[in-house]
């Protein structure tokens, strides 16, 4: 895929070149089979194909060049870590992907087997030395969300040079809000100390506008997916939501808006990626980090199209803008807390907003059914799956609950269940 030989750069970052080559070979093959083989893709996907082809190449070189120019790279695992604060010190925010089964045997030397695939994945990546994003980060933020992440960071923090632990509330109470605010202030101080820059009203307002523009572009894309026939596949839309976490934000926003211009023309011409009337699925649940494409691929190979993701890599992550209005840092911090405390992650209790959102998204995107997707051993989402199913089935909206991991071993049983579910929708 790459024209340039990036091996010297990867060696400088301390990657294990043999293992890393194996990972890229698998990724390249899967990308070819899952994405490039799709018929009638929008032309605007060329940019995202390019980003993927350079995911460990040009983007990493950009990060290294930015560091050489004095900027700092901040890696994080959760959408409670505000990108706005990172941009406000002229930093670069990268989501640390944890969507591939890699290095599991080594990860299980630190973690119980009954740990979700996402946590095992980020341990596997660092232990096998195959993640250039971790290696290129000046600070890695780990947040106290679910028990799995919280406890695993006790070990993970010893594996990286500059770990920042962020505490998070578990309820949407006034006390919870105060905790979130004080942790964001502490994070801002750590960013200032790392970068040598001060967060000002101007720098934070500008950063809020930049991230808002990125979210607005994603909102525009989401709305266009309500058309029938669907103008873009769920796989491609998921890929864009994944790239959201590590591309340059301004370039990403421009590329998503250019794609949306094209999709509007497609909709006007009735040009879809699947026929009109094709069964439409909303996926709800755990985040699908790059390159976790298994379930959407199965769904779209077997007679349905995914029209929305109620997920952190999807609408849960991008819903709501942050107000950029305020003439003091205190007001802008309040605005950040307002926005982030509305995220309906299953680690919060109670979390009825999430069920309301699944419901409203099903209507907005005209879904014929919902697949609830949980990673095995993810107690928060597995628990909430029952409430989601009960609420929607009472409204006669079919729900399929799936618990899986990152391996391809269960593809055939999953395919059988998905086919039966689509048959149920059709009938
Ligand atoms: S805001 S969903 S990114 S915490 S899958 S590690 S919950 S056991 S990823 Fe998450 Fe932030 Fe919430 Fe989103 Fe634990 Fe579940 Fe594993 Fe998970």
Give your account of this protein's structure.
- The mean pLDDT is 97.
- The longest helix is centred in the middle third of the chain and has 24 residues, at 201-224.
- The chain has 427 residues and is of the alpha/beta class.
- It has helices spanning 7-12, 17-36, 45-53, 58-68, 83-88, 104-107, 117-127, 132-135, 147-156, 174-195, 201-224, 234-243, 249-268, 294-301, 315-318, 329-340, 352-364, 379-394, 411-426; strands at residues 73-76, 92-95, 139-144, 163-167, 280-285, 305-310, 369-375, 399-404.
- Strands 2-1-3-4 form a four-stranded parallel beta sheet, with helices on both faces. It has a four-stranded parallel beta sheet with strand order 6-5-7-8, with helices on both faces.
- The radius of gyration is 21 Å and the shape is globular.
- The chain has two domains: 7-198, Rossmann fold, CATH 3.40.50.11890; 205-321 and 345-426, Rossmann fold.
- It contains 19 helices and eight strands.
- Strand 1, helix 5 (83-88) and strand 2 (92-95) form a beta-alpha-beta unit.
- Helix 3 (45-53) crosses helix 12 (234-243), helix 11 (201-224) packs parallel to helix 13 and helix 14 (294-301) crosses helix 19 (411-426).
- The site of Double cubane cluster (BJ8) has 20 residues, from helix 7, helix 9 and helix 18.
């Amino acid at each position: 895929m790459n024209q340039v030989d990036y091996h010297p750069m990867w060696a400088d970052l301390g990657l294990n070149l043999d293992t890393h080559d194996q990972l890229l070979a698998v990724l390249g093959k899967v990308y070819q089979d899952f994405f490039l083989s799709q018929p009638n893709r929008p032309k605007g996907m060329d940019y995202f194909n390019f980003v993927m082809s350079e995911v460990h190449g040009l983007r990493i070189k950009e990060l290294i060049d930015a560091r050489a120019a004095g900027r700092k790279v901040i890696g994080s695992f959760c959408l409670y870590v505000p990108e706005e604060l990172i941009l406000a010190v002229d930093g670069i925010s990268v989501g640390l992907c944890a969507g591939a089964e890699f290095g599991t045997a080594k990860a299980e030397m630190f973690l119980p087997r009954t740990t979700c695939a996402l946590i095992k994945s980020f341990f596997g990546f660092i232990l096998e030395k195959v993640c250039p994003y971790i290696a290129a980060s000046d600070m890695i933020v780990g947040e106290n969300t679910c028990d799995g992440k919280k406890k695993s960071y006790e070990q993970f923090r010893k594996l990286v040079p500059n770990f920042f632990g962020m505490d998070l509330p578990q309820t949407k109470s006034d006390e919870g809000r105060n905790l979130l605010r004080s942790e964001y202030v502490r994070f801002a101080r750590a960013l200032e100390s790392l970068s040598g820059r001060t967060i000002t009203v101007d720098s934070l307002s500008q950063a809020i506008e930049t991230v808002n523009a990125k979210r607005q572009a994603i909102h525009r894309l989401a709305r266009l997916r309500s058309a029938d026939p669907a103008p873009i596949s769920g796989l491609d839309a998921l890929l864009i939501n994944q790239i959201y976490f590590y591309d340059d934000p301004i370039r990403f926003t421009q590329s998503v808006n250019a794609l949306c211009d094209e999709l509007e023309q497609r909709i006007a011409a009735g040009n879809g990626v699947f026929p009109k009337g094709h069964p439409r699925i909303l996926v709800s649940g755990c985040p699908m980090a790059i390159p976790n494409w298994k379930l959407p691929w199965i769904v779209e190979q077997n007679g349905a199209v995914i029209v929305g993701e109620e997920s952190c890599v999807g609408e849960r992550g991008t819903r709501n803008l942050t107000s950029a209005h305020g003439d003091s840092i205190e007001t802008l911090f309040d605005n950040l807390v307002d926005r982030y405390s509305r995220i309906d992650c299953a680690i919060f209790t109670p979390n009825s907003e999430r069920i309301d959102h699944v419901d409203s998204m099903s209507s907005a995107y005209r879904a014929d059914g919902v697949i609830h997707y949980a990673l095995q051993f993810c107690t928060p989402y597995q628990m909430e799956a029952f409430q989601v199913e009960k609420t929607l089935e009472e409204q006669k909206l079919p729900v399929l609950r799936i618990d899986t991991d990152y391996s391809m071993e269960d593809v055939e049983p999953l395919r059988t269940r998905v086919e039966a579910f689509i048959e149920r929708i059709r009938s």
